[in-house]
Amino acid sequence: MLLPPVRRTAADLGVSAATVAAAYRLLRDRGLVVTDGRRGTRLRHGAPVATAARLLPLPRGVRDLASGNPDPELLPRLRMKDVPQRLYNEELNNPALIGLAARGFAADGVPAENIGVVSGALDGIERVLREHLRPGDRVVVEDPCFTGISDILAALALTPVPVPLDQEGPLPGALRAALHRDIKALIVTPRAQNPTGAAFTPARKRALRAIVAAHPQLLVIEDDHAGPIAGADYQTLVDSSRPHWAVVRSVSKSLGPDLRLALLAADAETVARVEGRQTLGIRWVSHVLQSLVVTLWRDPKTARLLQRAAAVYSERRQALIAELARRGIAAFGSSGINVWIPVAEETHVVQALLQCGWAVRAAEAYRLESRPAIRVTTAALDPRDSARLAGDLENVLRPRMRASMT
After folding, report:
1. N or C: which end of the chain has fewer CB within 10 A?
2. pTM
3. What does the mean pLDDT of the chain come to?
């Protein structure tokens, strides 16, 4: 809903324009409205902070291809060892974990002089945004965008500016145009983009790097939630010359979601701010979890399992895309554990597939301005089942496909 201009509201209420402008600013700071320059001020859709959704159990016999989980069979077993009790006023982070993380970041071209530990990728992204941005600031995001990032922006009263992407990442021309709109931050997913599976190619990385280099004060945040199981090399946009940046690398997809741990490589000021804020609340990320990650990363069996997981996830993802292609159905997913399938009508397709025994996600929650689609998580989808799923989807789409051909 578009609110009336400041001067009109002032005249209607018999108050000064300055009073109305101050009221609009207060509404914006509380996350209730969004200001968009000459386009005016609009009420924000939905509440600033969303309540946690209750997940309903799937009907018996329905395959879960909607939740976005990794395959439990491709996660390492968690075995606790004796961990010394940690006391107050000790180091925030396990030095061994920081050392291992630094080697991993450096191998991917990410500056590794300053590293912190956070409670997962979204926790890291939220903390970095809180330390640098203020309500009403504009943030460029990929479209479609992961729902967790959209929720964080809404909770912080930040304004998302969508940039379309293809299977190589954000479109350079669209990003260049967006960055001329007083943008404070950019959030990108260099590989295993959720929900589309996009991954930066070296050529796309160079193009995007050149664009962001023209905006040195832009806060650049990279979300590497999939890490080593993404099935694509890491291509970063950051370097040590940028004043403020962050790369958040989670272990949730590779080692297990319940570890709730991610490594944060960033400029010195950002890491210092995040760690300073942590000391006011959670104090530190559990050293039991930190030690467990160190043990897993040092185990040669884990390295072999991660290599196998990346290969298996790639095989499963590509198997479904190939089966869909044989039926004339376009699908995308160059990395990660998801396949993105454009459709004309999401609700009909999701409900029809559920009747066939498949639970998939409608793309509505991910889309800002992009077109309808469904997301299929292929992490635990045996390639032998891909043909059946593709056939069921073809049957669901067949009447509409025929109509489009006539």
Report:
1. C
2. 0.88
3. 91
